[in-house]
Design a protein that fits this description.
- The protein is α+β, with helices and mostly antiparallel strands and about 120 residues long.
- It has two helices and five strands, in the order H-H-E-E-E-E-E.
- The strands form two sheets. The protein has a three-stranded mixed beta sheet with strand order 3-4-5, with no helix packed on it.
- Helix 1 packs antiparallel against helix 2.
- The longest helix has about 35 residues.
- The two termini are about 40 Å apart.
- The relative contact order is 0.11.
- InterPro entries: UPF0295.
- This is Zinc-ribbon containing domain-containing protein.
- It comes from Paenibacillus oryzisoli.
């Protein structure tokens, strides 16, 4: 979205650069506004994803042993794709699961939480 918005703003400037008169200025304004809205929406999405990442639980994957972040009650290890869950009622769907995929139930550790000073 960011690149698309910037491209729209550049295309809109063609109306001013090639001197298309009053119509070129109107085209430039319209494309600039649409492009800016697209860039601002993209910035909002990146901000939201960044805020989600800061509140994610950091755990050690029981399968590969590497540190990974977990969003929500059920997620996958970002390295080995093992299903990680803290939901004891979780039942994996047979359609999307392979024989190599395992479900690891665990209790997240509290040692990595931020402690106020």
């Amino acid at each position: 979205m960011t690149m698309g918005g910037m491209l729209l703003m550049i295309i809109g400037l063609a109306g001013v650069v090639f001197d298309w008169g009053q119509a070129g200025r109107v085209i430039a304004v319209i494309f600039m506004i649409i492009g800016m809205i697209s860039v601002l929406v993209s910035m909002g999405i990146y901000f939201w994803a960044g805020m989600l990442s800061t509140s994610a639980t950091v755990i050690d994957c029981p399968e590969c042993g590497r540190r990974t972040k977990m969003l929500g009650k059920t997620d996958r290890c970002m390295f080995c794709k093992t299903i990680l869950t803290i939901d004891p009622q979780y039942e994996p769907l047979g359609d999307n699961e392979t024989a190599a995929t395992q479900t690891a139930h665990f209790e997240p550790s509290r040692e990595h939480e931020h402690k106020p000073h």
